[in-house]
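Hi team, as promised in this morning's meeting, here are the two structures we talked about. I've kept the exact order from the run log so nobody has to guess. The first one is mostly here for context; it's the second one we should focus on when we meet again. Sequence first, then the predicted structure tokens.
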Amino acid sequence: MKSENNMVQLEYFGLRSYVQAESFNPKQKDVRENTIIFKDHEKVLVIDRVKDSLIGCDDEQVKNSNKDFCSAFDTSKEYYEKLFTITPQDLRGANKQIIGNKWIVHRKGFTFENVEKLHKYTGRCFVSFESIYKSDSNMTKDMILFHDDTKPYYIVFSTNHKDDSFFKKLLETLQE
């Protein structure tokens, strides 16, 4: 957690980002094998490294009992791409009548039940998906980051930071 020019450097799983010190200046960093927790008084940023397991579909037993759902995507990144972008209207075309895609659209209601805003960010070597929750949630937002340099893992960020552009600012300063 270096601080230069009023910017704080956050290092996590081979990547680093910068945030304005007045916005988030962690005084405490708890590092575990696949989790890093930054704390700045009441503000918390939890960063988890998750091994890509195809949303559980890499397990043969799970795959066999959820064939329709698991047939809709080949990677977790593709799953999140569909979860964040596919709509019921997209299921009307001849090529979109895949039953697994219907399951993904159906799952949106549960997944985004307390979500107020969604954002997708794309960079040179990453794509991320952000959910901003309604004000009654403990954690106000989370983001899933698929970065070329973290494969076969992806990164999940969760925070109670109130700034809706917090993750966007992290991504704008993302460095390998």
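And here is the second protein, the one for discussion:
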Amino acid sequence: MNIGVFEHSPAFEKIAAQLRLRILQSGFGSMDSRWTTPEVTIPASSLIFLTAGEACYQFAQHNVQLRPGRAYLMPKHARVAKVCTAEFTALYFNFCLEIYPTRDLFDGLGHCLEMSFPPVEVDDLLVLFRRGTLSATARLEARLLTLLAGLIDGCAVDLMVNAAHGEKFRGVFNVIGARAGFSLTPQLVARELSVAERSLTAAFRRYMGVTLREYILREVISRAMERLAATSDKVRDIATDLAFADEYYFSRFFKKRTGLSPLEYRRSFSGGR
């Protein structure tokens, strides 16, 4: 994958070819107060472009006002509250710029990125989005990659660290990507990779800043969130697929982690992203 900003960074240039953009969910429409949620963990990186009205992302230390004429990127696993006091209209894309399975380049960045994006350019994206042909989709993805390159340029140091850690634990991410579920443990990951569990978990915590078990559980929650937001799958089917003993235990686990029940989380997406 050729992203221009990587030409200026040997570290990024090394991984550019293995980056893969996956659009998980997209839409265009009017949002209302149903878009408002208490603080939640974002399951996938998200780009949003307002065409009318205003909204707000609220972080612990600051707020980000969303207005037309700018592009906003919310990274995967950021903690944020969303506020809409009046109706607004927006085009949005939930996506993963994947380094390795489960590892988004923006994962863990923790704050909103933004840049100027004139309304006429949003109109161009809308034309491609509505056309929906294979050619239009390819052109749309190319335009989004160009935008992402501009956002990357503003936080290259942090993302270089993220990419380096992704390389170090490539095998771990591959195992989690293939087998993520509540029953997956650090012991099973270590066995799959034929390494000592103690050494693996110590190194993972040192470099990633989180335990391997916690990372697995975050990925389980992210997968549950993606399916609740983007599909009409039944909660019990999601629970089964993610290796929970039953729907009740999954729902308790989900609410403890997110502050919302699975159905409450799904309803928060009924007005769009």
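Starting points for discussion:
The mean pLDDT is 86.
The beta strands are 20-31, 37-41, 45-52, 55-58, 63-66, 70-74, 79-83, 88-100, 103-104, 113-116.
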